[in-house]
Amino acid sequence: MEDLNIVVRERLEKAAELERQNVSLYPNGYKVPDRIKELLEKSGAKNAEQLEADQTSFMIAGRVLSVRSFGKSIFMHICDSDAKIQVYLQKNQIGDESYLVAKRLDIGDIIRVGGPLFRTKTDELTLLVKDFTLLTKNLRPLPEKFHGLKDIELRYRQRYVDLMINEQVRETFRKRAKIISTLRRFFIERDFLEVETPMMHAIAGGATAKPFKTHHNALDMDLYLRIAPELYLKRLLVGGFERVFELNRNFRNEGVSTQHNPEFTMVEFYQAYATYEDLMEVTEELFGLLCREVNEGKTSLEYQGDVIDLGKPWRRCAFLDSLTSIGGVPQEAVESMEGALDYAKSLGIGHERFEGHGKLLTKIFDLVVEPKLIQPTFIYRYPLEVSPLSRKTEGAPEFVDRFELFICGREMANAFSELNDPRDQSERFKRQIAAFEAGDEEAHQMDEDYIRALEYGMPPAAGEGIGIDRLVMLFTDSPSIRDVILFPHMRPEKKGL
Asked: Which residues of the chain are in CATH 2.40.50.140 domains?
């Protein structure tokens, strides 16, 4: 830390010296008509003779990555957001005053340079600088160029440095943007209407999760940050919009891990006159398109050493069958609460008084089945107990028409045929209230207005939510959710960093 303070102090002194010489350290209004990537595309294939004959002048800007001085000349590498290039400054080309400024440049400074291209003796494409301006003075040293920013926590906390140094990190977020734009296009082309619904709710609903709570001063009422937009999107089905989707931010007051962040991005979409089985096909098409878009037309990818085949059709397995056939759970645990309790104890799983057989089996599933679902797998027909908003399965009312998609041992999507019977929904909300009173902090609250909306009549429909952050993890081979969130939540920074 002392070494860092010394370097910062030296740079501050250098900045003060430049200002004494009337050099503006942070000027504005300088246009940059060219990008380094475009320059390389236009002239990167030209040889020395062609460049000498061309003499087209370019004006670019970028951050200084390296500096090598040789008497009255300086070689530098600079980069913008897309590419880097070598530039060559000579005293007789830019003049005495500009050259004195150039001699005082530090790695990390941002400069604007203009001039023609040529090739050095080592055949490296280089810009011969004839116009030079310091645009931004750097006061804090960058990480060592060959090793970059190694401290993982520091990378997340100081993402601006991480992006500056690591091209691979920048590429991850370019892919994230492409995934989101492709996803949006996918739904719009299928006649879905993109909508926006409230992020502050009077009732925490749409999912079973512990919410963040806030207070609205003007209305003098408590509100909850959205845990899911589901109930508002289904109100739109009632209102006559038959296909809707929302790219949304959700907030759940839960733990932080490599797969969970309290603030996360999802897409939720709802389609009238469709079932959860229809959405299985939609999901296969969507993931296949995304894979082709970000993976050079391929329908397979590699994630953390596993080759994942996204070509359809994907495996489908009923929830109870998956416990025995994939998880190796004894039949007696699946068939009886007593057997499930004994098996759960052997796994070290606790049991709360408000939990029934279905919820306990879901806990067991999370531990013994989910990690084994590496290739795309739809697990369907979940217990009613853990699905308060899903339609009951005809002929088997203890189950619901719901699926979850798993890839690489983690949930990627959740979908179901929607419950549109207001009487059934009201009774399920009441059972959720009882569970909350018994100690379940994640139980769903009663939403009287949603019941009223259903009483007006919601068409039969199916809906699905897909976690965007996990989706990006999959398509960028990122091991942690923090790798795909620009500014993940962190504990308070210790003083002195």
From this structure: 2-142
- pLDDT of 441 > 80? The answer is no
- Residue 477: how many other CB atoms lie within 10 Å: 13
Task: Report the pLDDT averaged over residues 383-390.
Answer: 91
Instruction: Tell me the CATH class for 2-142.
Output: mainly beta
Condensed to tens digits (0 to 9), the pLDDT of residues 240-290 reads: 999 999 999 999 998 888 888 999 999 999 999 999 999 999 999 999 999
Do the Cβ atoms of 401 and 417 come closer than 8 Å?
yes
How many of the other CB atoms lie within 10 Å of CB of 213? 11
Give this prediction's pTM.
0.90
Please give the pLDDT value at position 146.
39
Report the C-alpha dihedral over residues 314, 315, 316, 320, rounded to 10 degrees. -150
Question: What burial class does residue 229 get, using C-beta atoms within 10 Å of its C-beta: 0-12 exposed, 13-18 middle, 19+ buried?
Answer: buried
CA dihedral 223, 229, 235, 236 (to 10 degrees): 130
C-alpha 324/C-alpha 343 separation (Å) is 12
User: For residue 157, with 0-12 CB atoms within 10 Å meaning exposed, 13-18 middle and 19 or more buried, which class applies?
Assistant: middle
Residue intervals in the chain for CATH 3.30.930.10:
164-327+369-484
In this structure, what token pair is assigned to residue 374?
């590496």
- Cβ density class 314-352: b for 16+ within 10 Å, e for less: beebebbebbeebbebeeebbeeeebbeebbeeeebeee
Chosen CATH of 164-327+369-484 out of 3.30.420.10, 3.50.50.60, 3.30.930.10, 2.60.200.20? 3.30.930.10
CB atoms within 10 A of CB 91: 16
Token pair listed for 91: 């005293």
Q: In Å, how far are 112, 417, 450 from 423, measured between CA atoms?
A: 68, 17, 12
What pLDDT, on a 0 to 100 scale, did the predictor assign at position 3?
67
Chain segment 125-178, per-residue pLDDT in tens? 999 999 999 999 999 988 765 345 567 888 898 999 999 988 899 999 999 999
Q: Is 472 exposed, middle or buried (0-12, 13-18, 19+ CB in 10 A)?
A: buried
| Res. 357: pLDDT tops 60 | yes
Nearest to 318, CA basis, from 389, 369, 385: 369
Q: Are 82 and 36 in contact (CB under 8 A)?
A: yes
Identify the pLDDT of residue 150: 63
Distances (CA, A) of 462 to 195, 293, 308, 399: 17, 26, 27, 16
